[in-house]
Structures are given as C-alpha cells and as structure tokens.
# Entry
Amino acid sequence: MPPGEAAAVEWGDSMSIASDLMRGNTEMILLARLMKKESYGYEINKVIQAATGGQLELKEATLYGAFCRLEAVGHIVSYWGDETTGARRRYYRITPAGRQAFAQSRAEWEQARRLIDKLIAQEGENHD
Amino acid sequence: MPPGEAAAVEWGDSMSIASDLMRGNTEMILLARLMKKESYGYEINKVIQAATGGQLELKEATLYGAFCRLEAVGHIVSYWGDETTGARRRYYRITPAGRQAFAQSRAEWEQARRLIDKLIAQEGENHD
DNA sequence: TTTATATACCTTGACAGGCGATGTATCTTG
DNA sequence: CAAGATACATCGCCTGTCAAGGTATATAAA
# Structure
C-alpha cells in the first residue's frame, strides 16, 4: 500500500466486520443514487466507489440481488437501454413509492445511528 | 399509542428494517456495556432498554448468542454469580482483548457511519 | 490472431446473525 | 395457588451478503 493511502474497508475480507454493518443499508444507498438520476448497476457501483474514495464497493451478487428486491416491491422499475454498441445495460428508475421508502429508510437509519452512538458513548467507562 | 409517545423501533416486527441495521452492532453494544461494569445478560438488556427509552430491546436469542460468540473468541469471560436467592446469574467481564476489539469496532462503525451518511446526503437530488 | 482487460449483467450455494418459539427454574405478589 | 418477574438456554427458520462461476461485447496489447 502506497504511503499516505488510507486502508480501505474491505467488505468481505478477513478483517472486515463491515458487510454486517452494511446490511440493511444497501437498498437505501441504491435508492439514494437513483434519487439523483436514473442509472444502471455497473455505473452506480462505480459512482459509489468514487464517492467513498474506494472505501466501499458493493459486490455484484449483493448489488443485483438488492435491485431485484427493490423492483419486486415496486420501489424501482427497470428497462433495457438502447445501446447500439458495447454491453447491454439495464437502467433503473425510482418510483414515487421508492422515494417514500427512501425517506422512511433514512429516518430509520438516523434513529438507529443515534441509538448506537448513545450506547457506545465513552463517558463513565470503567478502567479497572 | 398514547399521544406524545414516540414510536418504538420494534426490532423484528413487520415495519422494522431495524434488525438488519443492528446486525454487526450487537457485539459492540454489549462490549460497550461491559466497558462500564461487569454484569449479566438480563440486566444488560434492561439497561439498554432504559438507556434508549425503550426504543431498543435485544431479543434473548440474539443476546445470548452474541455473548457466546464473544466468549468463544476471548473478548469476554463468564462466571456464575453466588446469588443465594433468586435465579442464578451468569456474569460477564470484558478482557483486554475485548477492550481492544471494542475500540476497533467503534472505529469501523464510525467509518461506516460516515460513508453511509455521505451516500445518502440530500444535495443534488433530482425531483423530476 | 490471440490474449487480456474493461464493460455489463446474471445465478447458485453457502454462511452467519437475528428471531420466534419453547423450555427450565426460582422468587414475589395478589 | 396462580400469575408475573427474574434469569438463562436452545432449536430451526429467514434473509442479506458473498465467493465463485457464467454469458456477451468492445478495445488494446502481444
């Protein structure tokens, strides 16, 4: 690792508790991207990697599994792009129900985040 | 629900995405309690409920499963209390390795939290 | 030409943590 | 005596993530 480069949170490798930390947030993160613009799986994953400085990369099985669940409950819809060159792309668009679900997810995340932060606060620790 | 009472995050019921949000944080939360003082399962769960105003309650199967894992990897040790009355209690004490693991977990949690918050930030949302 | 790399999607089986359900035992309160 | 609180434990299920493998097209290097 080049000096000065931060250690990535390697989702899925031995030193990572992180895939459990991500659990339940994957769909929210995807919806967040689709709030900004409709897009397709491969690009969304690249954008997430770029936005986090390479610290977060969704695995393909996780990514497509999440898209599948989101479409099944009507939070997104998909359609094939009309690319005349290169690999085909399946585009996703968020639905009104998806926007609502995102708002709800964000609220639940913020509540959970507050609770966890409260429970691991350092005041009063016993160092015997 | 009485007016003015906040809706609890009901871990495990139908409207709750929350048990997935908790995944991977259970052990950290238990270690956080044991940093403050050694204690036993039932009490720890009550303290967690009190500290979160009833918003978070670990299920017993979750609680004891987590203690079991923590002990298996040497992050806590357990011993039977010497109660002469009432139900027996299994007490837990955090080990030096457990303190180290907690510090690491907290760092990973904070990193994950930052990443998630960044990815769901609202700037630039597209409301077409 | 062949090979490798990037783009782009999909599926299968295994794994692990959380949960509902159930069981045990003791003590207190009505 | 029945009910509820205290206190611990276990079983099997469910679900999201992952490793591994597969398909196909385009471009760059050998």
